[in-house]
Amino acid sequence: MDPKIIKLFEKMKASNFFWSYSREISAEDMRAEILVETVLKYGDVGDIRLIFNYYGRDYLLDVWAKRLLYDSRFRKLNFYLAKVFFEVDPEQIKKERPGDDRGNKLRMLASRHATGAGKTEG
User: Fold this and answer.
1) Whole-prediction pTM value?
2) Which of 4, 64, 65, 118 makes the best surface tag, with the fewest CB within 10 Å?
3) What is the dihedral of CA 25, 27, 28, 32, to 10 degrees?
4) Separation in Å, CA 3 to CA 8, 26, 27, 104
5) pLDDT tens digit string along 12-22?
């Protein structure tokens, strides 16, 4: 693994962005998708450029579209990433990838719970 990526991983780890993982986790143990998502969310411009150079635009675009684009908590970040780094219209990507909306999935699960759907009688 590239030393620059290891250093970037350590920077994100030191900032406690991987709080849900073991403290002993290493860059080699971390899935690339998780590192990319974390850097897109919390990294600075230099960090994002580094992962663009290492992983490539297509991979980052795929991770962004799957893991961040539909998360309304990151609306401003998504607009920024779309315009500055990916040079795309975020609404166009949403149209191309229906069904990934995390909010809709959570609402659906909540409504099933509230109505008792999916429960078995015991």
Assistant:
1) 0.72
2) 118
3) 110
4) 9, 12, 10, 39
5) 999 999 988 88
